[in-house]
Write a structure and sequence with these properties.
Mba1, single chain, 262 residues, Nuclear Transport Factor 2, Chain: A, mitochondrial ribosome binding, alpha+beta
Length: 262
Amino acid sequence: MLVSVSRTLTRQSPLFRAAGRIGARFASDATDEGPARVGLYKKIGVGAKYYVPPSFSKYPSFFSSPVFFIKTYFKRWGNSGLNWFNFARAKRELGHLDVVDFRHKAIDIYMRVHTAFASNNFASIDDKVATMVKDSLVARRKDMAQVKLDWTLVKFNQPPKLVSFNPIPGPSGAIEMFQMVYKFDTNQRLIIGEPKKEIKRTEKDSVDYFVFTVDPFSDDVVLAGSLFESSPADKIMPEVDPTTPRDKVYADMVAKADIFRL
C-alpha cells in the first residue's frame, strides 16, 4: 500500500508532471528500447525550475519578517525530504543507484568543461555534455576567438553537494532518467590574454549550480545546464502550465544550457 501511495503522490506532483511532458514531447526520438537507451538524455536540457535553497545571506530578516524567515528555513528541510522521497522511488523502480560514482562523474565533468572552454577544444567533452550545452559553449567561445585563457581549479571551498534529485519519466510513466543539481563552491584562477593588452590574472571564489542528466541504464552522466539560487518566495515544487508551447519549453532549456550566463 505504501508503494502505491508513494507512486500516486509522485505522479501528481507538478514537477513530475512537467518532467513527463518533457519526455513525451521528445518521444519522437525514442525506439522500443526506450528513449534513454537511444540517447535522449543527451538531447534534453533543464526543463524545470528545480528548487535550489537560497544562501542564508539572502534570507529575509528574522526581525522584520519572522514568518517569512521561518517559511524559507523550513523549505530547505522540505527540499531535503523531497530529494529523499524522489531518490527512494527511483531506487525502488530502477534498483541500485551508484550515487558515489555519479558524484565523481559530475566533478570530473565540471573540471573538463572549464578546461575545454579555456583551451577552445570541445572534442574532449562530446560525450560529457548535452547537445545544447555544447552548442552554447562553442558559440560563447567563438565570440572570444582571439582571447587565450588558462583556467585552474585551485580548490573546493566545500565538498560538492547534491541539492536536488529529480526523476524524469517517459510517456508510460516509468522513470527513463533523472537529473541531479550539484552545488560547486570553488576557488578558481583564470589567466586572460588578449591581443595588445596586458595579461590579466584573477583568482576568485565561485558558486555554481550545475544540472546533470543521468541515464540509469548505462550510468552515463552529462551536463544539461545550470541554475541560480531560488528566491525565498519560490515554491519547492513550482506550478507548471500544461499548455506551455513546446517552443517555449525548448527556449527555456537553451537559456539554462548557457552555463556561463550571468
